[in-house]
Amino acid sequence: xxxxxxxxxxxxxxxxxxxxxxxxxxxxxxxxxxxxxxxxxxxxxxxxxxxxxxxxxxxxxxxxxxxxxxxxxxxxxxxxxxxxxxxxxxxxxxxxxxxxxxxxxxxxxxxxxxxxxxxxxxxxxxxxxxxxxxxxxxxxxxxxxxxxxxxxxxxxxxxxxxxxxxxxxxxxxxxxxxxxxxxxxxxxxxxxxxxxxxxxxxxxxxxxxxxxxxxxxxxxxxxxxxxxxxxxxxxxxxxxxxxxxxxxxxxxxxxxxxxxxxxxxxxxxxxxxxxxxxxxxxxxxxxxxxxxxxxxxxxxxxxxxxxxxxxxxxxxxxxxxxxxxxxxxxxxxxxxxxxxxxxxxxxxxxxxxxxxxxxxxxxxxxxxxxxxxxxxxxxxxxxxxxxxxxxxxxxxxxxxxxxxxxxxxxxxxxxxxxxxxxxxxxxxxxxxxxxxxxxxxxxxxxxxxxxxxxxxxxxxxxxxxxxxxxxxxxxxxxxxxxxxxxxxxxxxxxxxxxxxxxxxxxxxxxxxxxxxxxxxxxxxxxxxxxxxxxxxxxxxxxxxxxxxxxxxxxxxxxxxxxxxxxxxxxxxxxxxxxxxxxxxxxxxxxxxxxxxxxxxxxxxxxxxxx
Length: 610
Ligand code: F6R
Fold this sequence. Notes:
The chain has 610 residues and is of the alpha/beta class.
């Protein structure tokens, strides 16, 4: 959600902080602020809007300092105003930035007001600043004050604290919101995501839940929530240096759509034999565990949930074991039944989604055989807390709308379904070899389908003035239709819904008239004739149909039926390939409607609050 950057150095760090914010802006973007220590006071600049507004303000009235903190906000408590923007101060002595939600902020605020503290924002975060200021009066160090303060907080926080009385030091605390410490030469940095710090360092320490750290020019002291010292080494980052640049592309989303052939190549690399999947790709224990499992439970949110839904079709048909799929925010709050010998799977681009992480923690208590995460961010909370991790290796995804993360998740999930079938010997060697062959062809086929971009851009023109849209699919293309609808609504703000095409006549058919565009994804499978009948039902009622179909489908274009034929892969991989036209369609519609494609309104990339 929000983005955090901090630095302690022997040079002016304002530019480093601002560059870090720019690289984190995809996480939250309704206001931004920076505070630095300058001439025995803390100077602060805050602005409503994007980081570019803050940059303008800093150009007009520069500030500089050798240590400082900065923040880009995605509002939870209090509207996006300058007063609500971070950093927040207490008595001009303590400055704080915070990512997360403090659930008990109201009683804390009341108590602090009674003690004479004055609040200048509506945020939950400001209580942290005042609590620390209060604790600092009776503590021997800033670190001790922060530890005492965070013990009083309920909720989630990743927070960085700067104090006027504690030179060359920042103190950070993590519970529920990620933080990473970066090391330079005689300087140290902190951020909510390593991406922010790649221009200045590649050496990182990932803080664990409940830890508090004091960051000085040359060293980092970490303690756990009980105050015990923690030893941890810096690790070299594996993320590409240019991950935060969009190069010659107009938007990160377009860049990321076009990166899919190479992203999927990376997902597959070193994980396939000639005619089988290397089962250890899912972890050292995978051969033994995947042989034993009798069921799978998957939880995820948003686009990752759609990947889970596709996986259900694949796991049940390829591996022949039951697969339950649920939205993480529902799963975590209801009583559910754990099937015997079930594997608990989370799917997440960021690895930090609050609901998915809470569901994993619940799953671990409920007695699943083991947990596996399909995730894109190394070192993220889901990766660290799961028994096994399969890294999708999509590379940094900056556009808020998930694209390459989704198709690499699907690639990993098809490999997983195959690996289970292999471990359990539930399908023939020939069938396994045929799926492996399909997997190997995905990068080439995604490259070919991207060549259709111009053709899809033409279709997009028809959607620009529309207010509603329906997406239809059958079988494993039904969740792909859902993903298409999500992409369209989140970046173009056109209301879109997806249906399993067989459901049409049970209600949604009433919506069809000549104003309603209907997007259909079609593969040449057992259901194609049924899908064609569903399309006829729509045509008979005047709906305008746009079909993205495998080239082998016998579907002919007409006045109100436009068809784009694609080489869509095989039985299973069509779901992956046919996702791409839907991504491109949403992208072009959004560009033509003039919306903010990479940072759509009200959304944030990494949803670290529930
Ligand atoms: C939509 C989108 C979101 C995410 C969801 C889960 O394009 O990106 O729906 O898929 O917030 O995020 P992760 O995958 O990081 O757990």
